[in-house]
Design goal:
alpha/beta, 6-stranded mixed β-sheet
């Protein structure tokens, strides 16, 4: 995104740390006059004379009465998060103190910031593009090493740089074709069609892996759903409890104990997994158990990975029959449980023998092999070094891909330059919507309204 002129706006303020009693709270203030405003309630260093990026001890006072001893950090334009003059007030984390300081600021002319307004101002002032702005929210929400790494890569511009290079090359050809249209009556061709074809094919080969990475990226962000499926009493609940290291599911020797879907999360090797324990699948006349079994089948359909747990050749055969109903491409892992009682002869497993993981959920034997396999299955889903995690980005990449395909088809059929120009413009529009080069107020409102206040 091109750098925009810094536009100092009205002063906004908000609590930047979580609400509730704590040792310290941070109140952010930003906008034209924010430094002089805080100076008027601060007893200590003259903040207007202070250097940027300096911290000063003093007190916040109202009508000569001390409200709190604070540390005030000064950020002067353009060297701040918003690129505006900004102040951060670090006070004690009392709800009363926070309210009093915010009331003082409002009485001096500030207003409470809207959700995400600090980040929105940073975007509008050219601090970063829209992909990076959205990555701020993802970074705050990251709850695993993998999701943190992905968000940090996007915040640092990894995804944006890739899109920017695509857009720059496309703009060059778009300008040549637009030039052709200006000389339409003279039948000239400035944009070499073979060069344009090679560029479009290169763009498509770059965008396709980004689109394909979305399922993987969404799993990193939300947690990989793993359904544990099998016949009654094969040890599904015992396996869930062993993975979570807690008694999450009820375990008994009575078949059909689990009658609903039980779900919990765990982080393995930096990846978050959502394990789903399901009701044992069998023929039954019990109404409640039947509902649980139907939910098990739904969980199996929606899961990224299905663990088929079996403890005998009979339960293996039942799982294989069930597995035949799965959509193509579903990742399946067959796990033999209860090896503490006795293993099935390898030759009896047929073609599966090389891919079956043997465990004892009860004694936790083989669990590390199982978890290592799950992690490797997830990391094997994406060949792209840049991962798409945002649904909005995914939708515009798909539309860009479709528009570029239309350009390619137009080149094959020999359509006129005005039709080519229209499809190229559409491609550029969707790429621009991702990074914020092309942006609307409604889009900004929709994106930043999901941020927390104070960010």
């Amino acid at each position: 995104m091109n750098a925009m002129p810094i536009h100092q706006q009205e002063v906004i303020c908000a609590l930047a740390t979580p609400s509730g009693v704590g040792a310290i709270a941070v109140i952010r203030v930003s906008g034209l006059g924010s430094i002089s405003m805080v100076k008027s309630i601060f007893k200590g260093k003259n903040l207007e004379e202070a250097e940027t990026h300096t911290v000063h001890f003093g007190t916040i006072q109202a009508a000569g009465e001390i409200i709190d001893e604070v540390l005030v950090t000064v950020f002067k334009t353009p060297r701040s998060f918003t690129k505006e003059d900004s102040i951060e007030i670090s006070c004690h984390g009392s709800d009363y103190i926070i309210r009093q300081i915010l009331k003082l600021l409002i009485s001096k002319g500030a207003r409470i910031a809207k959700p995400g307004e600090f980040t929105q101002r940073a975007f509008l002032n050219g601090q970063f593009d829209l992909v990076q702005a959205e990555a701020v929210a993802d970074l705050i929400a990251a709850d695993s090493q993998a999701s943190h790494k992905t968000a940090l890569n996007q915040l640092r511009g990894g995804f944006s740089k890739k899109l920017a290079s695509l857009r720059t090359e496309l703009i060059h050809f778009a300008s040549l074709i637009e030039l052709e249209l200006d000389f339409g009556e003279e039948d000239v061709e400035f944009a070499q069609r073979d060069d344009l074809r090679r560029l479009i094919e290169a763009l498509l080969s770059t965008i396709a892996p980004l689109i394909e990475s979305f399922d993987f990226g969404n799993a990193l962000k939300e947690g990989v759903p793993v359904a544990i499926i099998g016949s009654p009493n094969v040890g599904k609940s015992t396996l869930l409890n062993a993975l979570l290291n807690e008694e999450k599911a009820i375990v008994t020797s009575i078949a059909g104990t689990t009658r609903d879907v039980i779900e919990d999360t765990i982080v393995l090797d930096g990846l978050k997994f959502r394990f789903i324990d399901t009701a044992g699948i069998r023929e039954t006349t019990d109404l409640v158990e039947s509902i649980g079994i139907e939910r098990s089948k739904n969980a199996m359909e929606k899961a990224d990975i299905v663990i088929f747990l079996f403890d005998s050749l009979e339960t293996l055969e039942e799982n294989q029959q069930l597995g035949a109903l799965l959509p193509d491409g579903k990742q399946v892992l067959y796990v033999l449980n209860k090896i503490d009682i006795g293993e099935i002869a390898a030759e009896s497993l047929g073609a599966l023998q090389e891919n079956v993981i043997s465990i004892s959920a009860k004694s936790q034997t083989g669990l590390s092999q199982l978890t290592n396999k799950l992690v490797s299955m997830v990391y094997g889903q994406s060949a792209s070094d840049t991962v798409v995690t945002n649904l909005r980005h995914y939708e515009h990449l798909v539309k860009t891909h479709d528009a570029l395909n239309d350009v390619l088809n137009g080149l094959e059929t020999g359509v006129t330059g005005d039709f080519l120009a229209q499809d190229i413009r559409l491609s550029l529009f969707h790429l621009g919507e991702i990074t914020g080069t092309i942006v609307t107020d409604d889009l900004l409102e929709n994106i930043f309204s999901r941020f927390c206040i104070g960010k």
